[in-house]
Amino acid sequence: MRQDKHCLNCGTEVPERYCTHCGQENAVTHESFGHLVKHFVGDVLHYDSQFLTTLKYLLFRPGRLTKEYIAGRRAAYVNPIKLYIFISFIFFLLLAMIPNGQGHGEGGHNKVSIEKGGDPVPVVLDALTAVDDTLQKVLDEGGVHRKDSLIVVTGLPGAKGRYRTLHEYDSVQQQLPADKRDGALERRLRRRTLDMKEHYEEGSFWEAIKHHGPKLMFVLLPLFALFLKGIYNWKRWYYTDHAIFSLHLHCFAFIVLMLALLLDHWFSDSDTFTGYGLLLIFGYLVFALRNAYGQSFLRSLWKGTVLMFVYGISFAFVFAFFVLLLFAVIL
Questions:
Q1: Best exposed site among 55, 70, 144, 182 by fewest CB in 10 Å?
Q2: CA-CA distance, 228 to 217, in Å (whole number)?
Q3: What's the CA gap between 300 and 191, in Å, rounded?
Q4: Whether the model pTM is above 0.90
Q5: E strand segments, 100-250
Q6: Spatial distance between the Cα atoms of 302 and 220, rounded to a whole number of angstroms
Q7: pLDDT tens digits, residue range 128-164?
Q8: Biggest alpha carbon distance in the chain?
Q9: Residue 168: count of CB within 10 angstroms of its CB
Q10: Number of C-beta neighbours around residue 202 at 10 A
């Protein structure tokens, strides 16, 4: 402790250990290494205590954490925004680390990877065999022998759409009669899709969605709080109070989905654990509504069902808008 009772940070007189104006400790400016370590350990243990208490209430007492925070009892818990940023960061990091279509669930697909020009080209054997047989049959009936050069068969059903490159698509379209070519909208979508394929590697479209997942949640989180405000309009809660409930709920959802994704990746051939996780999240929502808003279980069940339904529709619309945006401009 310094002998001088004036704060070095703001100049206010310090009656005790900490400044009543800015909160800075009235400590000596040149601290020993041992004192720095002591401060660090104290801060870590304090945060750990906060985090463990917050996690206990979040996981095992649905709605109670929100109620405590709104009531003003906040010192013992982690700030909702900090908690959400921390948990969502881990969730989306884990989501990015789990490969698409890899794990125990990929064994049932009849796929093989062929190296062409240094890039892996996925080939679905059954589909290729069917297309090849159909093409050969049409060519045989027409008395045409197969050549290495490109043959445009305008009467082949389903021949459109199997293009590997943008150049190939444009070449075929130029050779087709005007009435057989794709319309303006279809042509734009096909060219955009092929352009994305050339710019991104296999599966990178979903990687882009994973990468921009936090942006989707940036829209969905306040929307969910708005739905809560509409359903509980009689409750004398501010919009920010509903937003705190939304943050806590999504934190729980991310934790459950993290565990479910890992279990599916390690042990399941499908999304079995993810399905159970979604049911658990719905059950948690119902009890959280009951405890936080103080209504009966049946009312909470009904409102929880409505919330999940509306939220699902909103997710679909936001996701569709994002996909359209991704098609319009390569992010």
A1: 144
A2: 16
A3: 48
A4: no
A5: 111-116, 119-124
A6: 21
A7: 445 445 545 544 555 444 444 444 444 443 444 467 7
A8: 104
A9: 13
A10: 14
Q: What is the DSSP letter of 99?
A: P
Distance CA 253, CA 278 (A): 8
pLDDT in tens, 70-103: 999 998 899 999 999 999 999 998 888 876 554 4
Distance CA(162)–CA(190), nearest Å, equals 10
Contacts 24+ apart (CB under 8 A), 263-269: 264/103, 264/105, 265/98, 265/103, 265/104, 266/103, 266/104, 267/104, 268/104, 268/105, 269/104, 269/105, 269/107, 269/108
Query: What sign does the dihedral 53-57-60-61 (CA atoms) show?
Result: positive
Q: How far apart are CA 105 and CA 261, in angstroms?
A: 12
Token readout for 155 is 């009467």
What stretches of 176-238 show up as alpha helix (H) in DSSP? 184-199, 204-211, 213-231
Paired residues of 18 in beta bridges: 25
Output the six-digit token pair for 149.
Answer: 């050069």
> Please, which residues have CB within 8 angstroms of residue 7's CB and are 6 or more apart in sequence?
13, 14, 19, 21, 22, 24, 26
Are 212 and 92 within 8 A, CB to CB?
no
